[in-house]
Design a protein that fits this description.
274 residues, MetI-like fold, 0% strand
């Protein structure tokens, strides 16, 4: 016990240091957002007269009400389809494919190595050929495909940890593969599905590159994508820019705090064998 105490204190110290380093940029952005409009804030200095109205000005100047609707529509177009397709594909790759079909899984693994920047140019010409430029579908459809490798990898990892005894028991009770999937596998996969939903929501909400390249109208982009147009208009007003950035981050932070236990449960799933 005596030898373990210094290690525990060291772990707490390192954790506190990591939290501090992580929060410092956001704290600096917050204090800068409260500075007088048009000024150049310096570090973490608290302004003498905090300008809380900067958040209202940023919300109105960036037309964030419309952006909130646009981001919500894009998220609703990307996340449910991606989660459903990945859950079905992950189950199929984990439970239905034999050794000869493992190359299908390798295709998804190869997709993990492709960064968005590497495919943005051919993706632009492909979207243009379909006549989808400057529409929300120019963001929704590519994101579904780009998120699929990781999503399938995530769900397959979960289904591999599900004992085959459950599948055999369901089949003995007369359940078809389809019923077994919906009535047995999907309820057991709820932590993995919830965590994947959170991740895809965060990535879609904060998507910047695709909306900027594929959509010219800022009102049709995600909130993060519209930040480029907002920065071009208000780039010299640092407090207003910081206030707008914090407003964009707020929904993702609130969502993660609300569902963090599901995310942690999925990460710990399979670490303890019952």
């Amino acid at each position: 016990m005596t030898a373990a105490q210094p290690k525990a204190w060291l772990a707490r110290l390192l954790l506190a240091l990591l939290i501090t380093v992580t929060l410092l940029p956001f704290l600096s952005m917050f204090t800068a957002a409260l500075a007088p409009s048009g000024s150049y804030p310096n570090g973490l200095s608290w302004p003498d007269e905090p300008q809380w109205s900067n958040f209202a000005k940023a919300f109105e100047a960036a037309n964030m009400g419309q952006l909130l609707i646009s981001s919500t529509l894009i998220v609703l177009g990307v996340v449910p389809i991606s989660v459903l397709a990945a859950t079905m594909a992950g189950y199929g790759l984990a439970k239905l494919t034999g050794g000869r079909n493992k190359w299908i899984y390798l295709v998804f693994v190869a997709g993990l190595t492709l960064p968005f920047e590497a495919v943005i140019t051919p993706l632009y010409y492909e979207v243009r050929a379909f006549g989808l430029l400057n529409t929300r579908f120019a963001i929704i459809l590519p994101l579904i495909g780009l998120y699929m490798p990781f999503s399938v990898y995530w769900m397959r990892a979960h289904f591999l940890n599900v004992p085959n005894d459950l599948t055999e028991a369901a089949q003995l009770d007369g359940a078809t593969r389809w019923k077994e999937f919906w009535l047995v596998q999907v309820p057991l996969a709820r932590p993995a599905i919830m965590s994947l939903t959170i991740l895809l929501f965060l990535w879609t909400w904060n998507q910047f590159l695709l909306p900027v390249v594929l959509v010219r109208d800022p009102s049709l982009r995600t909130m993060a994508g519209a930040l480029g147009a907002f920065q071009g208009q208000w780039g010299t007003d640092v407090p207003l820019l910081c206030a707008g950035s914090l407003l964009i981050l707020t929904p993702t932070v609130l969502l993660f705090l609300a569902f963090q236990r599901h995310f942690v449960a999925a990460l710990l799933q399979g670490s303890v064998k019952g």
